[in-house]
Amino acid sequence: MLKKETTFFSTVRIAFVIAFIVFLITTPATRPRAQDDLQQTENQEELYRQMKLARLQHQDFACGAIDKDEEKRFNEELLKSEFNRQRLEKQGHFQTLTAETLNQNIGNIAVVEDDGTIVIPPNSFDLNGKTVQLTPNDNNSYRVQAIAFAFDSDAGARITEFTTDLQLPHTPPDDGFAQLSFSQGFSFKFYGTTYTSVFIGTNGFLTFGAGSGDPEESVSSFLSEQPRIAALWHDLDVTPSRLPSADDGIFAKQLADRLVITWKRVPVFNTQQFNTFQIVIFSDGRIILSYNGISASSALVGVSPGNNSGQPNNVDFNAPPNTPLTGAVFERFSNLLQLDIFAATRNFYKTHADDFDFIYLWTDFNYDLGGGAFAFHLGASNTVQGIGRGPFNQTARFGSAGRLQSFLNMNNIVGRYPPQPTDRGIIGLNSALSILGQEQGHRWMSFVRFNDNGAISTELLGRDNAHWSFFFNVESVLSTAEAPRSSSMEGNAWRDNGDGTFSTPSNMLIDYFTPLDLYLMGLYAPEEVPDTFVISNPTNTLFTRSTGPRAGQTVRGTRKNISINQIIQAEGPRIPDHTQSQKEFRAAFLLILRQGTTPAQSTLDKLNLFRTAWESYFKTSTLGRARLTTILITDDTQKPALQINAPAGGEVIEAGVPAVLRWQSSDNVGVKKHTIKLSTDGGLSFPTIIGKALPGSQQQFLWQVPSGLATRQARIQVTARDDVGNKTTVASNNFTISSVPRITSARINQATASKPIRFVVEGSGFITGDAVIEVNGSPFSQTFYPATGALPCGTSVKIQARGAEVTEKLPAGVEVNITVFNRRTSVRSAPFKFRR
To answer: Most CB contacts within 10 A, which of 38, 658, 772, 803?
Structure first.
């Protein structure tokens, strides 16, 4: 996924780093060491804040948070879709006839108007000035009540020391936690487990068993990770310099029967949006959540046993159900629209066949993608081996019957993208096309590990283990010294300075794919992938493996060379390999509209501009080895173009060994499959199928030629079919299949009144019209091919010589060597001993 780097913010960060370095160089030697350390720490913290802010403002990355299997992102979207379905059921949506909405192709854009199931309305925070009480009913369930507002104004002692479980740029006390052990004999029972300590998160929640500094209010994490009480899970910041006063922050008060935790005037990260709220946990297991001034635009509120235990309950805390609820109980608040992507694609498939490998979803309005994402990729299915991902099939969730490979959520085409798809500055060093390159690239990468001297290492991987590491050298196939380009999958085009330092060119941009990328896509053979390197143990830098690409950077470290063989040792070979992999893809550009709206012509024009540019960019990125079409045609009558390249005619192919059949096919929409048949009678019939339902992208086939087959009239016939059934059939010219003749028996048939003396040889591989019988290497002047021994493939199982020449060459009582020689192929049988 991709995360936006405007020139302004890029300049600010570069200027800041330069100023920081100058500061260190020019600091007087007489300055107190403690003061130097304090100043350096403050500058580092500010730099990390700027890095985090860049992420949130999409100046660095486009992708939202995912993991190696995209499980978190997929589960988040799945939960959103399920809760949307529950919301619609409560409203009686599925029992009510809705107005007809637009669902059709406008040119080559599939336009789907929301029918009420796709766009999820905002759910603004409505608990301000209120108190919610959760009372344990048993070890697995809670009863929820909205009670009279209660807020303890005596907050207790301020907490000042925090740590974090996250990587940079997340730092405490911005994204951290503090562990508090209970005193005065107090303990707290939560979902049947008694605890004697709690972890207080700076981002508005308590956890048990382990701390968390996670700023992203994720329902998936809420359900699957550690037990949690979330009063206002949001990206908050309790850094002292960001608080209104020294009287604000996080406070704890321990009493004999309860623990009170208060977040007092805590701002949302990088804003002046202050929030005051409180969690009280009691020795009898009760929980009270109180709100005394909330400004956050979104939040997750509730309790969860974690570890995916129990059934999740998405509730309205203002009007909670009267019955106890087993499992997690929560409400997700947001001031923004959201999308049910599964409802969107299911609506798409109502009017489209399952003919697409990829769906790219766009809108003409802003909405919350979740996870701080500008765009994201979701895998629908995978059967490819050796790319660091296991097999899976989630196509039914999207409404596909099995073909869909990936879904790409590409955001608002009108408000989030520049006028031209090649414009830079949209996100870091990217253009819109390289963003598409990254999201599309996630179909195959970046997930691979490598064998590092016997240990399986993830050192090549960066953010979320789904992008290349900042320290991995990933120069794209079209990079030059004058125009250096790094992979669309992140990483950098590093230059080894030869002195233990490494630099990225100041004019580096992000574009295209690397040889390793193309191998993972099934377009390069392993031997085409040159060695590269990763910088190990980097120093002289504040950046991490998860940092986005940066031009003009220098780091110090140890060069570790990486070969494709090390990756294959860790992941296994790619299956299918570059000779059998899919190389023709079909994608749909899907535009989602809000209910009651129609698309502006300017929106359609812009989307078509991006669509056609992306087709060309994909072809360029893959060096023409793959093609992606985004054409939507429902009344297609154009037949595929097809030609056979090998065998073209006149060749001699040996029986019993593999032969490569090659052809070229293309179609305005895309070839769906190929069939190959064999004729041995010069094309009069093609009774033998030698390749069936071969993928449309496949342009060659390795045919195991049957042993014993011999003919001068062989032809192959290739049929190419497109998605709507149009087909083209082409046959080659005649070629020869050569088989080594084999003699199984020989005999003399004595002359009769109607027939001369005959020498009959039986066996296989005798090419009709070419085979010659030899005696001790001397051929008969004429060899006859009886019709009764002829086969359709142009061979005989029986051949003979006749007349006086038989008596001459085969005298009685003399043992001779009989051979059969095929003149056209110059192949001779093994000798056969014969005595008359």
So the answer is: 772
Q: Is a pLDDT exceeding 70 seen at residue 659? A: yes
Domain count, the chain: 5
Query: Is residue 17 in some structural domain?
Result: no
For the chain, how many residues are written? 836
Tokens 């804040």 -> residue: 49
Quote the CA–CA distance of 365 and 236 in Å, as a whole number.
Answer: 27
> Is 125 among the domain residues?
no
Tell me the per-residue pLDDT of 34-65, one tens digit each, with 9 for 90 and over.
444 444 445 566 666 666 666 565 544 556 54
Instruction: Label the pairing between strands 358-363 and 495-496.
Output: unpaired
Sign for the CA dihedral angle at 25, 26, 31, 34 comes to negative
Confidence of residue 347 (pLDDT cuts 50, 70, 90): very high
Residues whose CB falls within 8 Å of the CB of residue 153, separated by 6 or more in sequence, listed in order: none
Beta carbons of 133 and 286 less than 8 angstroms apart:
yes
CA 677 to chain centre: 36
Does 139 map to a domain? yes
Tokens of 517: 């990328």
CA 315 to chain centre: 33
Q: What is the mean pLDDT of residues 727-741?
A: 92
pLDDT of residue 425: 77
Domain that includes residue 778, residue range = 740-835
- CA dist list (Å): 175 to 58, 203, 269, 333, 550: 19, 7, 10, 20, 24
Boundary residue ending a domain (313, 334, 355): 334
State the amino acid at position 95 in one-letter form: Q
Residues with Cβ < 8 Å from 375, sequence gap 6 or more?
1, 2, 62, 63, 64, 369, 408, 409, 410, 411, 435, 439
Q: What is the 3-class SS of 626-658, one letter each residue?
A: CEEECCCCCCCCCCCEEEEEECCCCCEEECCCE
Least confident of 281-295, 307-321, 788-802: 788-802
Residue 784 lies in a domain: yes
DSSP 3-state assignment of 545?
Answer: coil
Share above pLDDT 90 across residues of the chain, in percent, rounded to a whole number: 72
Three-state secondary-structure class, residue 519? helix
Angle formed at CA 503 by CA 499 and CA 509, multiple of 5 degrees: 160
Strand blocks (E) in 396-499: 406-412, 450-452, 455-457, 485-486, 495-496
- On whether both 198 and 285 belong to a single domain, the answer is yes
The residue written with tokens 């038989």 in the block is: 806
Distance CA 548, CA 104 (A): 39
Token pair of 626, please?
């793959």
Q: How far apart are alpha carbons 513 and 532 in whole angstroms?
A: 14
One domain, residues 171 and 148: yes
pLDDT digits (tens, 9 = 90+) for 140-188: 999 999 999 999 999 999 999 999 988 777 788 889 999 999 998 999 9
The strand pairing partners of 510, in sequence order, are 486
To the question of pTM greater than 0.90 for the whole model, the response is: no
Residues 683 and 804 in one domain: no
- Among residues 65, 72, 112, the alpha carbon closest in space to that of 360 is found at 112
How many C-beta atoms lie closer than 10 Å to residue 339's C-beta? 24
Q: Does residue 457 share a domain with residue 526?
A: yes
193 and 258 together in one domain? yes
Q: Token pair for residue 736?
A: 């020869």
**Tokens representing 430?**
């990217």
- Quick one: average pLDDT of 798-824? 92
| Residue 474 contacts residue 492 (beta carbons within 8 Å) | yes
pLDDT in tens, 79-120: 999 999 999 988 887 655 455 788 889 888 999 999 999 999
431 and 471 belong to one structural domain: no
